[in-house]
Amino acid sequence: MSEPKKLYIKTYGCQMNVYDSERMAEALGGQGYVEIQTPDDADMILLNTCHIREKAAEKVYSELGRYKGLKAEKPDLKIGVAGCVAQAEGEEIMRRQPMVDLVVGPQSYHRLPELEAKTRSGEKALDTDFPEEDKFEVLKNRPKAKRGPTAFLTVQEGCDKFCAFCVVPYTRGAEVSRPAARILTEARDLVERGVREITLLGQNVNAYHGAGEGGDWSLARLIWALNDIDGLERIRFTTSHPNDMTDDLIEAHGTCPKLMPYLHLPVQSGSDRILKRMNRQHTAESYLVIIEKLRAARPDLLLSGDFIVGFPEETEEDFQATLDIIRASNYGYAYSFKYSTRPGTPAAERDQLPEDVKDDRLQRLQALITEQQKAAQDAMVGKEVGVLFEKPGRLPGQMVGKSDHLHAVHVQADGLQPGNLRRVRIIESGRNSLAGALVE
Ligand code: SAH
Ligand code: SF4
Ligand code: F3S
Description:
Elements: E1 5-11, H1 15-29, E2 33-36, E3 44-49, H2 54-66, H3 68-73, E4 78-82, H4 83-96, E5 102-104, H5 112-120, E6 125-127, H6 135-138, E7 150-154, E8 156-157, H7 168-171, E9 176-177, H8 180-192, E10 197-201, E11 209-212, E12 215-218, H9 219-227, E13 234-238, H10 247-255, E14 262-264, H11 272-277, H12 284-297, E15 302-309, H13 316-329, E16 333-338, H14 355-378, E17 384-392, E18 398-403, E19 408-412, E20 421-429, E21 434-438
Parallel strand pairs: 1-2, 1-3, 3-4, 4-5, 5-6, 7-10, 10-13, 14-15, 15-16, 19-21
Antiparallel strand pairs: 8-9, 11-12, 17-18, 17-20, 18-19, 20-21
The chain binds S-adenosyl-L-homocysteine, iron/sulfur cluster and FE3-S4 cluster.
The site of S-adenosyl-L-homocysteine has 17 residues, from β15.
Main location: cytoplasm
Family: Belongs to the methylthiotransferase family. MiaB subfamily.
GO molecular function: 4 iron, 4 sulfur cluster binding; metal ion binding; tRNA-2-methylthio-N(6)-dimethylallyladenosine(37) synthase activity
């Protein structure tokens, strides 16, 4: 038998890319590749890229530059670019970096075996189509390897919302939901392989409306069906849009036993004027109403969000409105970004704010968020939570895992295994994690 070829994949961007990278490794597994953790010995290097902000795309080019030496040493090494930069700039990448052999967009991963074969025959391969077929269905070549306790499962891809700053509708295409039965089969398979927690993914996951028994299924219906799978202990989903936060989904947060009390619900800005210019189709008030309903359904819900500062025409007053909505919403986690001009999006054409104004606002916003994050974490002390253990900690006898609210928790205890779900009393709040003790 010939030696397996070695595949190194480097993943950037969102969780959907993490999921896609797993699927790409599986697709190339059928071509005799095994995945390795460093690029040095690789026969193929794949960069699974992100285009969301300018820096993200620039990283790809500098990373490619680092492989020049490897490629010179080993002419058989194939270098591929996948993901959202591949979709947006495929041909330019081929021009700018002649060392790239393969470019594949996010909707064409099931064609990787053919594309790889093409590169082996000395040709360049480029595929940035939006094919009709369901790439995940074609990627059925799944080895039944044992898995860790947590997994991602993409249920929906693409976006039709066209926020004025965002490239996703262009790189990922129109919104498509996978059929419910296929998702449930994949979930059962993951559970058989050791998975205890599944995070359902989509660029707009709560807009999910997949074909299922008896018609169209909502995300809430899908979650309830997952709730019935024995051995699956926890369900999460991300990322959601406020306008798709339907009543059945809000209610599920109060009643569905396996749905965790955590929700990532980005609002981006607290100013209605800016929200309108962003084409978000919601107001600050309508967002706060949803939060109120969610907390009525599930009082201990930990909220997380995304914010953009320095969007074109954002005034100090607009920015203050963003700080106000942060104060009103009270986040357990939040991710904040300086607005980054994306060519081809509507906001790129507008008057841009100076960099120092953006920097200053980002700092002030992050100071507030850090305060809230710390307060939310400290408030867990004395409480009893579920913890799904994932791996040994830094100290001997220590195990770490995630709480129901997604806080990192470490516990000193004998006999705990990855995959164990235990009740834990939180005893201390550290810088980035909580310490707890098993509840007998
Ligand atoms: N679909 C998700 C988010 C996708 S992108 C949603 O609608 O919420 C993840 C985050 O990146 C966004 O929430 C936004 O805060 C940020 N982002 C997207 N485009 C950006 C840009 N051009 N500049 C800065 N941040 C951006
Ligand atoms: Fe981008 Fe807006 Fe779609 Fe989210 S909803 S992916 S921010 S266009
Ligand atoms: Fe980035 Fe594409 Fe995800 S642009 S955030 S990898 S959908």
